[in-house]
Amino acid sequence: MNTIINGWFSEICPMWPGMALSVEIEELLYSTKSKFQQIDLYMTKTYGKMLVLDNIIQLTERDEFAYHEMMAHVPLFAHPNPERVLVVGGGDGGILREVARHDCVRQIDWCEIDPAVIEVARRFLPTMAVGFDDPRVRLYMEDGKKFVDDHKQSYDVIIVDSSDPIGPGKALFELPFYKALKASLKQGGVAATQGESFFIHTECVNNLTNITRQLFPVQTYSYMLVPSYPGGHLGICLASLGPELKKPVRPISSAMQQTLDYYNPEIHQASFVLPHFMNKALNPDISTSLAKGKPCGKESSIEVKIVQSVNPLEIKALYRDAGWWKDEYDRDTSFLDTLVCGSTCFAAAFDRGTMVGMGRALSDGVSDAYIQDMVILRQYQKQGIGRRIIQALIHGLTEKKIDWIGLISTPGNQGFYAGMGFRPMEGHTPFVFKGAPEPIDHGSEQ
Ligand code: SPD
């Protein structure tokens, strides 16, 4: 919903409930409804021309440089030799203008779904549309997901300049698109996507970083200041198949530096430094023991080690706390006695001698192992103990030369395991036996 009252445009949107950015308007220069969205172009009092899609501000002439420079130069300078670049979205041309500043780039494929946005930029935003006519640019008017799906292992850098995850941009914030992005990168490729506001869309940012953590060996998050976006900033979700991202790996020429107004090598690195609440949100394993109200002391009072035996009653206490204990187990608890010696590795966490967490691995002792029964007493959770237990198990198993280590993540813990080096096994599905099967065709036998 867009409201213009007394000459002020207010950006009212359910994505930032209870707040709205207002910009004083001089006149509406152009307005149209394309097949995909409502497109409005205003002349504002103090921010120059302002492009609005479906009533959401996409850019103003006064501060667009911050977004476009960072979205383009952070991934491009993180790559040692970006030759083939794909830009998804960005119909205004701002990203193309920045990508075209890199002489090493030989080909810029550009996939934009809405020709009407390109038309508006050509007519009204010449300082952004300059990139359209660079001879290296090839325009594809298609759906971004489909385009990426159709171009496997094709790009050194992919930049996704999307609107918000409502309207035509929604699919660009979802797992299938990120899987396709990954497949479309060449070896050592880098992807950068519009990463929303960490203050206002913490959930969305978490979701994006969980997706990239699951899929990519390197992933991180950076941001830039843009006064005309809600919260005054916008994030970049970055992922790579190799490069470390946080430092530029190529020098910037002084000629190029002079053309820029926001990006420089220092701000490249600084843009990854996040407020601590975001560090905690993006790294679930960071110890929160300093958080208010945690019942037990510092993480350092917890000892995690591989054990050869434990008190079975303590295992029972853990299982009970986790809700795994069934009354019928009380009839014969002897299985607890062999739980430790029946495991290839058993790691336990102790707070001053009391067991507060455990995890164990089962293995043939030669090639592969499965971690299971990871449990931490509720009041000891979110202190990094789970991470230490997994690390102890990995260490114990690799010492036994077992390097294929699998586990089944419980819902919501995928990010935790991904942060420890585990990856989903593409194409595999966990199964559980639910009773004798019907006498039907079983497919191929194993
Ligand atoms: N909340 C608005 C986010 C807009 C991001 N895309 C901007 C497109 C500019 N090329």
What this model shows, in words?
The chain has 446 residues and is of the alpha/beta class. Helices cover 27% and strands 27% of the residues. It has 14 helices and 18 strands. It has helices at residues 64-78, 94-99, 115-124, 126-129, 144-150, 175-184, 202-215, 254-259, 265-270, 276-282, 312-322, 334-337, 385-399, 414-418, and strands spanning 2-5, 8-11, 21-33, 38-44, 49-53, 56-60, 84-89, 107-111, 137-140, 155-161, 185-194, 218-225, 233-240, 302-306, 345-351, 354-363, 368-376, 404-407. It has a 7-stranded mixed β-sheet, with helices on both faces. A hairpin with a 2-residue loop joins strand 1 and strand 2. Helix 5 packs parallel to helix 6 (175-184) and helix 6 packs across helix 7 (202-215). The radius of gyration is 26 Å and the shape is elongated. The chain starts with a strand and ends in a 28-residue tail after the last helix. Mean pLDDT is 90; it is low at 287-299. The structure holds spermidine.
Structural category is: alpha/beta
The distinct ligands, each listed once, are: spermidine
- Rg from alpha-carbon coordinates: 26 Å
Strand content: 25-35%
The parts where pLDDT drops under 50 for at least 5 residues are 287-299
> What's the story with the biggest beta sheet?
7 strands, mixed
Number of E strands: 18
Largest beta sheet: strand ordering: 9-8-7-10-11-13-12
Q: What sort of overall outline do the alpha carbons produce when their principal axes are compared? A: elongated
- Give the distance, in angstroms, between the N- and C-terminal Cα atoms: 57 Å
Number of helices: 14
Average predicted local confidence, pLDDT: 90
Instruction: Report helical residue fraction.
Output: 25-40%
